[in-house]
């Protein structure tokens, strides 16, 4: 399996609910980044969290990082239909090269 | 303050033709990455370049694919003699200094279809 695996692969929730996605990785990292991708579009950067940080917030987004478990989670609170997208984590392997997982496809139902 | 600019956005090529994808990094960024995304999959690293240098091309197929980032002008990803399996979205990203943990920013992608 590859560095940076997200789960679940797909998630369907009602508008207003919270969505939680997880990312696991195998080797030590300097940083972990979360991205959103709408269908047919590029990746939009959401949050970068460094290995010495445990939690970061940005608006309705909350990212946690547990380096002992080699895992990260992305929480979207009070979800909206516009949050429907694929979400990817990317880990840097301690170098410049970011490795992406296969993503979580989130569907928010209005 | 333009972001990462890629062109063309969509490209159709017949088998055996050449595809050239261009990427202009964000202003001030001298580090460029190319990734490929197959349908329903994540992004796969292809190559990392700085101005006039290929730093890491470990993700590039050994044949038919090449990349450059000249002193002047955009970065180019070139695919010669395309085959159907080359059909994918190709994303370019740039950063200021990856070794400082800077964010990498992506373009909107170039969607190649080989018919």
Of all protein chain pairs, which has the greatest interface, and how many residues does each chain bring to it? A-B, 25 and 27 residues
Amount of beta strand of chain A: over 45%
Radius of gyration of chain B: 13 Å
**What is the rounded distance between the termini of chain B?**
36 Å
Poorly predicted ranges of chain B: none
Order of helices and strands of chain B: EEEEEEEEEEE
Largest sheet of chain A: 6 strands, mixed
Which structural class do the helices and strands of chain B define?
mainly beta
Compute the average pLDDT of chain B: 92
Number of strands of chain A: 11
What shape does the CA trace of chain A take? globular
Helix content, binned percent of chain B: under 10%
Helical coverage of chain A, percent range: under 10%
Q: Biggest sheet of chain B, open or closed, and with what strands and sense? A: 7 strands, mixed
Tell me what portion of residues of chain B adopts beta-strand conformation.
Answer: over 45%
Helix-strand sequence of chain A: EEEEEEEEEEE
Distance between the termini of chain A: 35 Å
Q: Regions of chain A with pLDDT < 50 over 5+ consecutive residues?
A: none
What's the total number of strands of chain B? 11
Radius of gyration of chain A: 13 Å
Report on this structure.
The complex is a heterodimer of chains A (110) and B (115). Chain A is mainly β and 110 residues long. Helices cover 0% and strands 55% of the residues of chain A. Chain A contains no helices and 11 strands. In chain A, the strands form 2 sheets. In chain A, strands 2, 4, 5, 9, 10 and 11 form a 6-stranded mixed β-sheet that branches. A 5-stranded antiparallel β-sheet of chain A has the order 1-3-8-7-6, with no helix packed on it. Chain A is globular. Chain B is an all-beta fold and 115 residues long. Chain B has no helices and 11 strands. Chain B has strands at 5-7, 10-13, 19-24, 31-37, 43-50, 53-56, 65-68, 75-79, 88-95, 105-106, 110-114. In chain B, the strands form 2 sheets. In chain B, strands 2, 4, 5, 6, 9, 10 and 11 form a 7-stranded mixed β-sheet that branches. Chain B has a 4-stranded antiparallel β-sheet with strand order 1-3-8-7, with no helix packed on it. In chain B, strand 7 and strand 8 form a beta hairpin. The termini of chain B are far apart. The interface between A and B is medium-sized, with 25 and 27 residues.
């Amino acid at each position: 399996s590859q560095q940076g695996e997200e789960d679940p692969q797909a998630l369907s929730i009602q508008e207003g609910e919270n969505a939680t996605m997880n990312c696991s990785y195998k080797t030590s990292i300097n940083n972990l980044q979360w991205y959103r991708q709408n269908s047919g579009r590029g990746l939009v950067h959401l949050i970068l969290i460094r290995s010495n940080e445990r939690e970061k917030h940005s608006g309705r987004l909350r990212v946690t990082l547990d380096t002992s478990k080699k895992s990260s989670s992305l929480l979207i609170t009070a979800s909206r239909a516009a949050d429907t997208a694929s979400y990817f984590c990317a880990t840097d392997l301690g170098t410049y090269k970011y490795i992406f997982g296969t993503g979580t496809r989130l569907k928010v139902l209005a | 303050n333009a972001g990462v600019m890629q062109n063309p956005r969509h490209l159709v090529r017949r088998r055996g033709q050449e595809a050239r994808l261009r990427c202009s990094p964000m202003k001030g960024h001298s580090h460029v990455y190319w990734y490929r995304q197959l349908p329903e999959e994540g992004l796969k690293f292809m190559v990392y370049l700085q101005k006039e240098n290929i730093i890491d091309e470990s993700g590039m197929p050994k044949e038919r694919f090449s990349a450059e980032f000249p002193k002047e002008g955009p970065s180019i990803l070139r695919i010669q003699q395309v085959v159907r399996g080359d059909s994918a979205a190709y994303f370019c990203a740039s950063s200021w200094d990856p070794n400082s943990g800077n964010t990498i920013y992506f373009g909107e992608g170039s969607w190649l279809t080989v018919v």
